[in-house]
Design brief:
The complex is a heterodimer of chains A (256) and B (304).
Chain A: E1 4-13, E2 16-26, E3 31-35, H1 42-49, E4 57-62, E5 65-66, H2 72-78, E6 79-82, H3 94-99, H4 114-126, H5 142-156, E7 160-164, H6 172-187, E8 192-196, H7 200-206, E9 209-215, E10 218-223, H8 224-227, H9 230-237, E11 241-246, E12 249-254
Parallel strand pairs in A: 3-8, 3-9, 6-7, 7-8
Antiparallel strand pairs in A: 1-2, 1-4, 4-5, 9-10, 11-12
Helix pairs in contact in A: 4-5
Chain B: H1 12-20, H2 25-59, H3 71-84, H4 92-112, H5 119-143, H6 146-157, H7 167-182, H8 184-190, H9 194-199, H10 204-226, H11 232-244, H12 248-272, H13 281-303
Helix pairs in contact in B: 1-2, 2-7, 2-10, 2-11, 2-12, 3-4, 3-5, 3-6, 3-10, 4-5, 4-10, 7-10, 7-12, 11-12, 11-13, 12-13
Classes of the chains: A alpha/beta (256), B mainly alpha (304).
Chain lengths: 256, 304
């Protein structure tokens, strides 16, 4: 399995310093949570790691190779990203959309085979969209569209999963379901994941590691249990935080 | 059917005779006049439909049609200028082609610029260029001699009267069709948005410019044969999306086939409805296409 890492990475967008001198290694098996206030540049960082936008300085490395020098198709077989929004201009079927995940694995004239079909059907079943195969994507609810996009990512089978707010639009049950699946992908399948999240408690429950973006280029990374405490979270969100000991670990709430 | 009817309506046995003996009077009619014209109509219909499919993906806009980026404007201006100056009609297709290629080059070099792909910039550049051409065309129409106005109007509305079997256009169509079919899956991904396509491994910058150039060449070819036939390139891709779905691997062949058929049918009507007078085929495509499209759209909504 492949390792994605950053080497002295400087990321900026529109004058905002997202991260400077970022050193990060996504090892197989790790599930990273990316925390930070609104507009701090979480999406920008994810795009940079996926190779679709360029850093100001430094390198993003897939194994030991710079992603900016690798062909896009090869990259797409190793790095997959769930975007924050999915907008469908043209209508399509749910199954057909899930199958687009196979795109980087197929050649110029090649069609999807029975194996690809099976992968798509399995992924749709995993996200609870079995029976939706022939439905049109423009008719899906926000949460269903979100789960479809996640299914397409599973079908893509990348070693590194980058997820921009994967639990957006999802109800409680599906939030837990998606987070559980990402954890399975990392822990059991030897992949790695980095997910931008706003729910500290989902991060506390599922993520093995945390990367915090404080703004002005400052960042902090480490194991979840070391990273998640009142001090760091108050600094991160500029808001008093209260720690409560739950049955399955610590939970954090806005205090006051 | 297109070869049977016209100002002179053939009986079936006359038609069969004509087909088997090209030297006879009716044989001449069928082989020299009607068949080449039907072939031209089919080719132009297929070219425009295919171009429409590509433009809609390129601009990610279901309202895009083959003419939106000014390709036809350049062709129209060149042709009308030729008509005003009294250039031999045989040279007009070449002029149209030159005009559209000029327009493609202008839009391409202005919209390209530095930095990332911007669909909006391409759209704006194209639309503004098209407006510029249309102003020049209006100028020509007002200044032009009255005698040639009718010919100009027919050309602007789209007219197949002077079309001959366009061997080179069929070649271009076949070549670009195969190319597009090969990258049909990439087009599917591109229709989901540029970022999505890049994340799925498409070098979108190259791909988008390739799609732009292919679509423009298809349009330029069509326009040089038959003028600005409206509506086919907008409506056929939509109709086919409603019928066969949005997978370009089936959509492209369906659009090319149906677009061709649709234009042959329209042109046959244009020749026969008021025979021996001929209507500009562009009028017929719109008159036929609008109700057909509205009907199908309505049905699709009911089914959902």
């Amino acid at each position: 399995m492949t390792v994605l890492s950053c080497d002295q990475l400087d990321v900026r967008i529109a004058g905002v310093n997202v991260a400077s001198q970022l050193e990060l290694t996504l090892e197989p098996g790790q599930f990273w949570g990316l925390l930070g206030p609104n507009g701090i540049g979480k999406t920008t960082l994810l795009k940079c790691l996926s190779g679709i936008s360029a850093p100001v300085a430094g390198r993003v490395l897939l194994e030991s190779r710079d992603v900016s020098e690798l062909p896009r198709r090869l990259l797409a077989r190793h790095i997959g990203m769930l975007q924050q929004h999915t907008v469908y201009v043209f209508d399509s079927r749910v199954l057909q959309t899930a199958l687009t995940g196979r795109h980087p694995h197929l050649g110029y004239w090649e069609r999807e085979g029975p194996m690809d079909m099976e992968k798509a059907i399995n992924a749709l079943r995993a996200v609870g969209l079995d029976g939706f195969s022939e439905r049109s994507v423009t008719g899906l609810s926000g949460g269903e569209a979100r789960r479809l996009a996640f299914a397409a990512l599973l079908v893509q089978e990348p070693d590194v999963l980058l997820l921009d707010e994967p639990t957006n639009h999802l109800d409680l049950r599906h939030q837990v379901q998606i987070m559980t699946m990402i954890r399975e992908q990392t822990r059991d399948c030897g992949r790695s994941a980095l997910a931008a999240l706003h729910d500290i408690n989902l991060a506390a429950r599922f993520c093995s590691h945390i990367l915090m973006l404080f703004g002005d280029g400052q960042w902090c990374a480490g194991r979840s249990e070391d990273m998640l405490n009142e001090t760091s979270l108050e600094r991160l969100y500029q808001c008093p935080v209260e720690r409560v000991q739950g049955q399955s670990g610590p939970r954090f709430h806005p205090a006051g | 059917m297109a070869t049977v009817t016209g100002s002179v309506i053939l009986e079936w046995n006359q038609w069969l005779m004509a087909l088997t003996s090209p030297q006879s009077e009716y044989g001449e009619l069928v082989w020299r006049l009607r068949l080449p014209r039907a072939m031209a109509a089919w080719t132009v219909g297929a070219l425009l439909s295919l171009s429409g499919c590509l433009m809609q993906v390129l601009l990610r806009n279901p309202l895009a049609d083959p003419y939106i980026l000014g390709v036809s404007g350049g062709a129209s201006f060149a042709t009308l200028l030729g008509m005003t100056l009294g250039v031999a009609s045989g040279l007009l297709p070449a002029l149209a082609l030159a005009g559209s290629l000029l327009s493609i080059v202008i839009v391409f070099s202005l919209a390209r610029g530095e930095g990332p792909w911007s669909g909006t910039r391409l759209l704006l550049t194209g639309v503004v260029t098209a407006s510029g051409w249309s102003a020049l065309i209006s100028l020509l129409l007002t200044l032009g001699p009255d005698g040639s106005l009718r010919g100009m109007l027919f050309w602007l509305l789209g007219d197949l009267s002077y079309a001959r079997t366009p061997i080179w256009a069929i070649g271009a169509l076949a070549l670009i069709f195969l190319l597009c079919l090969g990258m049909a899956r990439s087009l599917n991904v591109l229709a989901m948005g540029e970022t999505t396509a890049r994340l799925l491994g498409e070098p979108t910058h190259k791909l988008l410019w390739l799609v732009y150039l292919l679509a423009s060449i298809l349009t330029a070819t069509a326009v040089s044969i038959a003028g600005n036939i409206g509506f086919v390139g907008l409506i056929v891709p939509h109709l086919m999306r409603l019928i066969v779905g949005s997978d370009h691997r089936t959509l492209l062949p369906a659009a090319a086939l149906f677009g061709g058929l649709f234009l042959v049918l329209s042109d046959t009507l244009a020749r026969t409805v008021l025979a021996p007078r001929q209507l500009p085929v562009g009028v017929v495509t719109a008159l036929l296409g609008v109700p057909l499209f509205l009907l199908l759209l309505n049905r699709a909504r009911v089914r959902q």
